[in-house]
Amino acid sequence: MEWFIGVCVSIIVLLISSWWFVMKKKKEKNGNKIPKGNSGWPLLGETLEFIASGYSSRPVIFMENRKSIYGNVFKTNILGSNVIISTDPEVNKVILQNQRNIFVPAYPKSIRELMGEHSILQLNGNMHKKLHSLIAVFLKSAQFKAQITKDIQHSVKQCLASWTNNTIYFQDEVKKITFTILIKVLMSIGPGEDLDLLKREFGEYIKGLICLPIKFPGTTLYKSLKAKERMMKMVRRIVEDRMKLIIDNNADRCAVNDVVDALLRDKSELYNSSSSSSLMVEMISQNIIEFMIPGEETLPTAMTLALKFLSDSPLALSKLMEENMELKKQKTNCSNEYTWTDYMSLTFTQNVISETLRMANIVNGIWRKAVKDVEIKGYLIPKDWCVMASLTSVHMDEKNYENPFKFDPWRWEKIGVVASNNCFTPFGSGHRLCPGLELSRLELSIFLHHLVTTYRWMAERDEIIYFPTVKMKKKLPIRVQPINTSLD
Length: 488
Known about the structure:
Blueprint: H1 2-33, H2 47-54, H3 61-70, E1 73-78, E2 81-86, H4 89-97, E3 103-105, H5 109-115, H6 125-140, H7 142-163, E4 167-169, H8 170-173, H9 175-187, H10 193-205, H11 220-249, H12 259-264, H13 277-290, H14 293-311, H15 314-334, H16 340-344, H17 347-359, E5 365-370, E6 374-376, E7 379-381, E8 386-390, H18 391-395, H19 411-415, H20 437-454, E9 455-459, E10 464-465, E11 471-472, E12 477-482
Parallel strand pairs: 2-8
Antiparallel strand pairs: 1-2, 3-5, 4-12, 5-8, 6-7, 9-12, 10-11
Helix pairs in contact: 7-9, 7-20, 9-14, 10-11, 11-13, 14-17, 14-20, 15-17, 15-20
């Protein structure tokens, strides 16, 4: 009996030893493939260095320093998360395309808290695909394009006229155009108390998108969450009222006038029979608030930086004026209204916009989490690890763009803006490509057209800050005058 027990014990020990040896070898093998890097200080990680680079004149310095030591893909710890950062366009493409569903959205804790569980940023699979498709189809409709072109023109002209003969803080003032237009696209809300409340609360809400994930009274995250609660109360009421109106008036007979309408009219699996109406309202309301971000941050920032770069580049400004004056002359002679196509066909204007988006990418990185071990170009991203595809690093890499820190719209005459360009992804890529990218370009085009064909301006010296979001240090003060008067 004793010999039998001894044999059994020996076999067990042998099996355990073999398993340990195999796992050790596997770990060593995988360990060699996991990107090298540094986790930094306990709790803080390398967050302070990451933030500090955003306040410097070279915002990619954090990435550049680590690239020089560890290579194009490295590991670090920022904003409370262990993360692998990719500055390689080919690795980024695999992450963003996500063809085998090996990645799911994974953002820092502060962003996850603010967006909520139903956010389009955190949705995955069929649910995300359907929501994305509904919005994209509405934004591409001929009826929408015709109406929004007129709405943007009216808002731009009105706002520009109010700036005449005044020194204004451009970064703040331009939001009166973008936020107003976007709220109309989302919920058909015009000027008034509701719009003022949304703008005020959203300004507080946006501050918490990139902050330390500490939720105590008085902290940035706490204040942002409270601002969201107040916005949600209003948006819920609007969605519920619209839902009742659609039901009472038969949805099939009513026009789709905004994003709320487009989402409420869907009869597919997005809101199936098992979903309660309260969940439907909650999902739509949360995402409507999230969709406000372009109107308060990304688009006005792009407009501000376009003006900044053009102010510093007389040749580019002259070429832009020449192209837009020609379009204005054509429209004056034939008395036809401007169309979406007119603005989007302005080649050099589109080049200016592309160069602005390249140099000051508003979204500096896309966050994902691996659902299983995945190897890309020899780099192993282990299951449950976070990965960030750094868009800014690719846009500002001299291997991808000659003189990357120089504003040069003419470079796009050679490159061209094509979907296959892995080195230009200001609106993301893959099935998460921003559905509003054409609308953003349209609004920028309309603004630049009416600005350079009707007004002149003098901008004060200012510098760009890249953290927590891209903005001008002094909000870019400018003085605006009609084009036929002098700037005194």
